[in-house]
Amino acid sequence: MVAMPHLPTPAKPTATRKDVARLAGVSTAVVSYVVNGGPKRVSPATEAKVREAIAVLGYRPNAAARALKLGSSEMLGMVVPDMTSPFFATLAHAVEEAAAARGYALLMVNSGGSLAAERRAVEHLASRRVDGVFLSSVLFEPDLRELEAVEIPAVLLNHSTESPGFDSVGVDFVQAGRDAVDHLVSHGHRNIGLVMGISTSGDLDGREAGWRMGLERAGLPIGPVMRQHFDRDGGYQAGKWLLNSSERPTAVFASSDLIAVGLLRAFHEGGVRVPEDVAIVSFDGLAESEYCWPPLTTLAQPVEEMAQAAVEALVGGGGHKSNRRFSATLVRRASCGCAAP
């Protein structure tokens, strides 16, 4: 007897809206009203029958057909320079929640700090017909012609300056730099250095501009500036340089919490006490800043408020373009010499 070959089980046919209507004993229009939440009202009893039929049949609405009918994909895109960064991960999560509250899903793309990859990401999202894009550019001043060319609504996120024709949302970096210096000066420091993250564009970062303004306003000389990557290793390398420097300041403004974490490790290894030998104020307000030792005094970005403002600007229906610039909040902890709260 010849063994018959094993034949694959036929795929279960996909349930359609007509199948749901037939099982529930209603019209296909009623099924559509239940699935889409309108435009006509359905009695609770009828809705219950339709939803039971949907569950029994495993019906899934056709997203492409729904998008075509509504004229909306109900999907927003977001481009970030580094999705492994705790700050951008936190920001993306806040944007995702704010978008979901309005019925939108979020598709995030990582540019890896590359301008070319950023442009490809925007084009890719536009080709997917998302309803709008949040762009956290690798440039302080992105080429707006790129966004205009893809003809898609966009909000510049983590962007502190005004950009004609576009909504933008960000933090006042300059004020944050001044606030950091003012706070360190209030602790009696006269020699305040800066560890500045390296930007792709090479433009002057607002945090550095604010640091310089703060020193000038206090009548202090410009302290040493160390430029490193916006990560823990960048801070660690800056810290090792400071350990061997005859120009070591008594206080440092670190342009990100991650840089400050790297500084702490280098100082611990080198026997430099924080804040007794070197005080630190950092920027971002990540959860990590509270759990290192000593806990970091930081200028915290209002991430949730920024996310809400960005989503409102993109899908809220307002016609006027604006720049929403938020203030960072000084969170006092032990790294600057403040007593623990």
Automatic annotation (TrEMBL):
Transmembrane segment boundaries: none
SMART domains per record: HTH_LACI (SM00354)
Alphabetized PANTHER family for the sequence: HTH-TYPE TRANSCRIPTIONAL REGULATOR GALS, LACI-RELATED TRANSCRIPTIONAL REPRESSOR
Keyword Protease among record annotations: no
Identification of the protein by name: LacI family DNA-binding transcriptional regulator
Entry-linked Gene3D superfamilies: 3.40.50.2300, lambda repressor-like DNA-binding domains
Gene Ontology MF, one: DNA binding
Entry keyword Transcription regulation: yes
Keywords: DNA-binding, Transcription, Transcription regulation
Domain HTH lacI-type: 15-70
